[in-house]
């Protein structure tokens, strides 16, 4: 699959989709810490619209989503998949079997009406499948409702759920059922659903396929297991099934891991038969880092096929503050041998699939693909990958790595030399992350059209390599660079400043033996008085530690910076783990004499040890 997609693809009635140039939503909100360069992708629905399901009827796309803001099943319509108009709730009345429920991780207005699916049924009309809380057990189950139009309103069928393996009504407890999807094969309608076994000890998450009646309201046969949770990257979850057939191959897309964090992702499995067995791909289809962090937790996907057989994928992802899940759109591409890829996501090359020289391929359940290249301890230790480009030009290597190197002074940076087709392509620097804390660093190269040989050779210290994602164009984040030597700067201890709604705590690893932590609130801040001999530009070297996580996924933290009461930008703190003190540099303008520098919490949490001024 091509890795530098600079071509523009005509898509669905004149919609132009180009990697990195997707049409932005009209009401898109700026991220609290905007990065240089264009994002890889922007929302087409920049509002809380999780688990999108899309149905094309008479030239109109109908999108349905999980409950929000008082609507049980949200509904929007579009003619181009980009511009969406909000419509009325299509399921204002729930089935008699539904009980009360609220679910804080999904948002303040989440009442547990999840992941709707609407299908045109062979018997005529439309069926809506929805997830809700069974009043007889503390489990989610699937109900069905019908309508003559995709606009609804849909009327619940019967007084019992359609699929409800929760131990009530004589059923076997599989944890309940969620995430219905439909598929038609040979004129017969099927329901896919997830046994929500990750809810409870002793159970597991399983995706099933089950035949339906022609009107879509009755199950006509037993469920057939397709896949279950059995890969480390899935965490405890497989869910949100979407089934597509191309040629003789069935491709089952599914979401995995904890939906509440950046570790949520989309994967797929394939089979020559509708009922399996299905073989899972070793590399996920969509992850947070394959979008360079522009989509956080991509999942809840649906695939749309137009009349010419072209496919798009819609999916949700968290906003930068993890407050709501917006909807994103990309072309879904297929290689000649049927391997799917998402145009807006970087092409991933696993380090362990390359040629490792004087290094070792090591199993690691936390690594992408379940393995990494470690033991790059010698002058000639290297990893070589073959990467493909559609046409020559600039490209960015997003290298997934971990660096736990230390020397007598403490943590140190590591470096690798990069060559492309045997030519020197510079040195990439790896920040100290601690071992196992996988992070991305971007490095610009020039690729030739076709297959390119990319080699990373150890230069200084030691870094382990997990994977390399290839994106077109320039990097969107600055390179890691050695920070100013504190001997050449003046250090101001954070704990000696004015601390607001935070706490000074002892830490023998911190400069001065203490640091400022507990910067957990909107007004949490630390203020230091710094001196400048003359007015002009200066560099703040902020010594910090960031162990923030969301759903087990490491996240950046940010502080706003003011100098003498004036805005001086936002500083972004990479995930370093707690206690791993690292310095990030931030440029400001100082007045001659004493200056008041304040760091105020913006997103997530970072502790501050000291500020070096040079």
Written description of the protein model:
By secondary structure, the chain is mainly β. It has 4 domains: 54-228, Tachylectin-2, Chain A, CATH 2.115.10.20; 229-345, Tachylectin-2, Chain A (5 Propeller), CATH 2.115.10; 349-472, Galactose-binding domain-like (Jelly Rolls), CATH 2.60.120.260; 486-613, Jelly Rolls. Helices cover 0% and strands 48% of the residues. The strands form 14 sheets. A 5-stranded antiparallel beta sheet has the order 24-27-34-31-32, with no helix packed on it. A 5-stranded antiparallel beta sheet has the order 37-40-47-44-45, with no helix packed on it. Strand 3 (53-57) and strand 4 form a beta hairpin. It starts with 8 loop residues before the first strand and ends with a strand.
Q: How much β-strand is present in the residues?
A: over 45%
Estimated structural class = mainly beta
Mean pLDDT score, rounded?
92
As laid out across the biggest beta sheet, the strand order is 24-27-34-31-32
CATH superfamily of the largest domain: Glycosyl hydrolase domain, family 43
Shape: globular
């Amino acid at each position: 699959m091509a890795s530098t997609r600079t071509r523009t693809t005509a898509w669905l009635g004149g919609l132009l989709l180009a990697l990195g140039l997707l049409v932005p939503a009209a009401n898109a909100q700026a991220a609290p810490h905007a990065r240089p360069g264009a994002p890889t992708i922007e929302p087409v629905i920049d509002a809380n619209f999780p688990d999108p399901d899309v149905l094309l009827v008479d030239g109109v796309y109908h999108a349905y989503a999980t409950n929000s803001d008082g609507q049980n099943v949200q509904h929007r319509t579009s003619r181009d998949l980009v511009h969406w108009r909000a419509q009325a709730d299509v399921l204002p009345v729930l089935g008699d079997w539904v009980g009360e429920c609220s679910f804080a991780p999904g948002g303040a207005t989440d009442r547990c009406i999840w992941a709707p699916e609407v299908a045109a049924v062979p018997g005529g009309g439309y069926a809506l499948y929805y997830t809700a809380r069974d009043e007889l057990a503390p489990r989610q189950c699937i109900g069905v409702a019908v309508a003559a139009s995709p606009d609804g309103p849909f009327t619940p069928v019967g007084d019992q759920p359609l699929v409800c393996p929760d131990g009530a009504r004589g059923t076997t407890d599989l944890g309940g059922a969620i995430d219905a999807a439909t598929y038609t094969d040979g004129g017969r309608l099927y329901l896919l659903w997830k046994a929500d076994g990750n809810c409870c000890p002793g159970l597991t998450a399983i995706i099933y396929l089950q035949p339906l009646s022609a009107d879509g309201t009755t199950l006509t046969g037993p469920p057939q297991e397709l896949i279950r949770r059995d890969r480390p990257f899935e965490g405890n979850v497989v869910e949100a099934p979407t089934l597509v057939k191309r040629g003789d191959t069935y491709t089952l897309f599914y979401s995995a891991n904890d939906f509440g964090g950046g570790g949520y992702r989309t994967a797929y499995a394939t089979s020559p038969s509708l009922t399996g067995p299905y073989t899972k791909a070793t590399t996920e289809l969509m992850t947070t880092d394959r979008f360079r962090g522009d989509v956080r937790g991509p999942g809840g996907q649906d695939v749309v096929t137009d009349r010419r057989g072209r496919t798009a994928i819609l999916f949700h992802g968290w906003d930068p503050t993890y407050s709501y899940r917006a909807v994103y759109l990309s072309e879904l591409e297929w290689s000649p041998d049927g391997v799917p890829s998402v145009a807006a996501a970087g092409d991933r090359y696993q380090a362990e699939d390359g040629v490792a020289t004087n290094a070792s391929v090591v199993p690691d359940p936390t690594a992408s693909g379940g393995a990494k290249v470690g033991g790059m301890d010698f002058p000639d230790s290297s990893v070589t990958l073959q990467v493909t480009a559609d046409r020559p030009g600039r490209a960015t290597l997003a290298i997934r790595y971990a660096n736990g190197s230390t020397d007598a002074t403490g943590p140190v940076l590591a470096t690798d030399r990069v060559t492309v087709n045997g030519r020197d392509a510079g040195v990439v620097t790896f920040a100290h992350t601690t071992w196992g804390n996988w992070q991305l660093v971007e490095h610009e190269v020039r690729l030739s059209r076709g297959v390119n040989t990319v080699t990373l050779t150890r230069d200084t210290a030691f870094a382990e390599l997990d994977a390399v994602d290839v994106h077109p164009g320039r990097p969107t984040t600055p390179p890691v660079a050695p920070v100013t030597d504190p001997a050449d700067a003046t250090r101001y201890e954070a704990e000696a400043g004015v601390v607001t709604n935070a706490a000074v705590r002892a830490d023998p690893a911190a400069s001065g033996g203490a640091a400022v932590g507990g910067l957990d609130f909107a007004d949490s801040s630390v203020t230091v008085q710094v001196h400048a001999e003359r007015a002009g530009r200066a560099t703040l070297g902020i010594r910090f530690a960031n162990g923030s996580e969301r759903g087990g996924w490491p996240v950046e933290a940010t502080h706003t910076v003011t100098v003498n009461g004036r805005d001086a930008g936002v500083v972004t703190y990479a995930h370093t783990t707690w206690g791993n003190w690292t310095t990030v540099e931030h440029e400001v303008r100082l007045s001659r004499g004493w200056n008041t520098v304040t760091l105020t919490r913006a997103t997530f949490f970072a502790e501050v040890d000291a500020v070096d001024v040079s």
